[in-house]
Specification:
By secondary structure, the chain is of the alpha+beta class. It has helices at about 10-30, 45-50, 55-60, 70-75, 95-115, 125-150, 155-170, 170-175, 185-200, 205-225, 235, 240-250, 255-280, 300-305, 310-315, 315-330, 335-350, 370-375, 375-385, 390-415, 425-435, and strands at about 80, 85-90, 445-450, 460-465, 475, 485-490, 500-510, 520-525, 530-535, 550-555, 565-570, 580-589. It is built from 21 helices and 12 strands.
Amino acid sequence: MKIDVRKPGTRELLFFFCLFLFSITLILKTNQGRGIFTWQSQIWSDKAGYYMYLPATFLYHFDTSKCPEGIDQKTGYGFTVDRKNNTITTQYFYGVSLLVSPFFLSAHAISKISGQDELGGFSQIFQMFSKIAGVFYLVLGLFFFKKFLRNYFKESLQYFIILVTFLGTNLFYYAIEDGLMSHVYSFFAISLFLYAMKEFLMDPTRYRYFLLMSVAFGLMFVIRPTNCLLGIAFLFWDATGRKEIMARLRLIFLPKHLFPLLGIMFLFMLPQMIYWKMAHGTFIYLKYGEKFVNWNNPKLLEVWFSTLNGLFPWSPVVLLFFIAMLFMIMKRINNGILILLFFLLISYMAAAYRYWYFGCGYGHRAFVEFYPIFCIPFGFLTEKIFASRGSIGKIIFSLLVLFLIYMNIGLTLHADKCNFNSTWDWNQYSRSLHQIHLYPGATPRFTFKNDFENGALCNGDKLTDLISNSRNWCAVLDKDQETCCEHTAYVWDFGGQFPKFVNVRLSVRKVKSGPVNAFLVCSFEKNDSVHILQMQRLDPFVRDSISWHTVFKTFRVPDGLPGEARLKVYVWNKERSSFFVDDLYIRYE
């Protein structure tokens, strides 16, 4: 059978089929050898929390006696199994599990037919099918996204925007590396919502599009409730004035629209409410909002520019999206102000979150689901540049976009499924750029910073946000904390630039007067034993309990250490005293 690629529908299907195969190939390559009960596995921590509803429903029937022993601990405590009260609890909504359920049931059927051990729904086949689910909804989301774009741009530009959005942003990471997080599913639901909304607004008599829009809105909510902020687009998107906005408001309150919308929302919320009743004894259990604690002190600069999951350093093409928003406003293109205000709203909400960097991941993930509207200005900017007569601007713009796509793909494929930077560690960021050959000159000097804002760096340290030397958090040492602030580097990490000295600096504050009898330690270990131990007492530097004091020490690295030898720096609280530590900085020279 001959395929006629000249037909738009055929080109479209072929494009998305190739995109699906490309993505599947990548996940097969990048996820090899990661195991099933490790922090790098597909179903771990937050992802296990989203996924928990499936094995709990279909395998355990919410009976904790059927849960494998320690399954919550083995999967990073994304959910909790309370055998005493016979409850399985998670803070996450069930929307991701709803969309993944066909893939889960397929894995379950294959496991039964082949006689494989399901390991409580976490075996390798369940891991793989959950990855495939992420790619499936990515491609389906891009499919509806293209249908939305056709209202504004010609076909070639539609494909260009899709490729830039996928390959140039951290949507790529959350489809390929972390496909069980909520973001790719939210991206799908929002793309579907925008497509159905636009079709309905163009002709409100097409009732099927209103129903589709309502279903998409319900999905958006049960995947991630903050997605529903996009619902305001129904009133303002493409609106030409106040009269049209009021007409849309009246339209949504018509009984034939309002009651079906409320009914669909209720049907989507009913399973969640039943689960809350089973797990918590109440039909309404909303605790997620309690983590938004920085409304009066939002970390906007960190959200946008920090080396710890900052939006622009890790997805620099989004900076073009932002510039394009300003371009839309300057050119008075409809929706420009709306898109910018929504971008600022999402930024403010992310900056108000207690963990503004949103935990482990690649780039700032709070923006991923909203790329279907954030990239619209980029389309208008691209259209303007390629409509100009000069060719130099087109070439520069094209090369810039290609460079940023290369940068995003390179950093993504070198990512370790968790960002181990501190808030402003540009040296570590430059080392990441050096890995993908984008940093000029020699490898940046190996340094390490821990400002205790990034939980991934803290290795079980006890933290507090009641006092700190910089930003929000610091480490606490007390009778329960004998050691703290441990950082380990192997000799082979230095790639031939073997250091001779380890310079360490940290800030310390006592709780009360008197000595703390604690030490800054640098140990050199091999074969699971300490080869050389060097120490510096903290007390000579920490004079009082009124303010923070800087402790510093240069340790000498012994010669002839083998590649597997470890250089370990930590604080040893020998007498189990109470004091605070912040802003650890290590430089290897």
